[in-house]
Amino acid sequence: MAAYQFLSDIQPEYYIIGGDGIDFYGISDFCRDPRRALNTQEDADGWHDILFKIRNIIPNAEIIYLEGNHEYRLTKYKWTKCPEMTYIRSLTIEKLLGLPELEIKFIPYTKYWQYKKLYFVHGDIISKHSGQTARNMREKWGVNIIHGHSHRTGKSNKTTLSGNQAGWESGCMCDLNPEYLKGKADWQHGMSVVNYYKDKIFYVHNIDIVKYSFIYDGKYYHLN
């Protein structure tokens, strides 16, 4: 798969998973297909297999997993439906997905991860148009920030006397036509690559994946 080939080619120092890797469809608030609602363990196993492949492809990278609101559904479910099970250690995202064994650092939904002047967070804002969410997240946090959650790609800049500040929404890698949404979802496939120069100046490449294809550093990739 080209996504794996891309990781193999660039061998990042850090790899940030933006969240919503597992849906927890069966405990969501949406009207659910009962056949799929019973597949939580199967979904977790499938996502673990992907994480396992990623770890093997980039063995030297520090992998950061930002909890998304979909992963957070498990905590909400325990708190509201079965609070007695809340603090059982085996019923956590980390244990369910085997993150410690894969040496993946888990960042809870309400927290963030920072590298120098750039902040990474799943996000909790959804705006109507692409780029508008990036603007609202930038204004909310007041820092340079990359986020997911909106399932769109976009960018927002603001320049003041103190310099330039930007927000990026980095798109998604999910199904763009989920059965629980009416009409066409205003989502875009995409991802972000951050390059640093002398560990001081950084540049964010927001990569739009169009018809399962993209170009980076002069090379063509197709997600087959």
Question: What is the strand arrangement across the widest sheet?
Answer: 4-5-6-8-7
The backbone outline, from C-alpha atoms, is: globular
Helix content: 25-40%
Mean pLDDT: 92
Order of helices and strands: HEHHEHHEEEHEEEEEEE
- State the helix count: 6
Report the count of strand segments: 12
Q: Unreliable stretches, pLDDT < 50, 5 or more residues? A: none
Structural features, described:
- This protein has 224 residues and is of the alpha/beta class.
- The chain has one domain.
- The chain is built from six helices and twelve strands.
- The strands form four sheets. It has a five-stranded mixed beta sheet, covered by helices on one side.
- β7 (153-160) and β8 (163-170) form a beta hairpin.
- It is globular.
Search tags:
224 residues; alpha/beta; five-stranded mixed β-sheet; three-stranded parallel β-sheet; 6 helices; 12 strands; 25% helix; globular
Brief synopsis:
The protein is an alpha/beta fold.
List the helices and strands and how they pair.
Blueprint: H1 2-10, E1 14-17, H2 34-37, H3 40-57, E2 62-66, H4 72-81, H5 93-97, E3 104-107, E4 113-115, E5 118-121, H6 132-141, E6 144-147, E7 153-160, E8 163-170, E9 190-197, E10 201-208, E11 213-216, E12 219-222
Parallel strand pairs: 1-2, 2-3, 5-6, 6-8
Antiparallel strand pairs: 4-5, 7-8, 9-10, 11-12
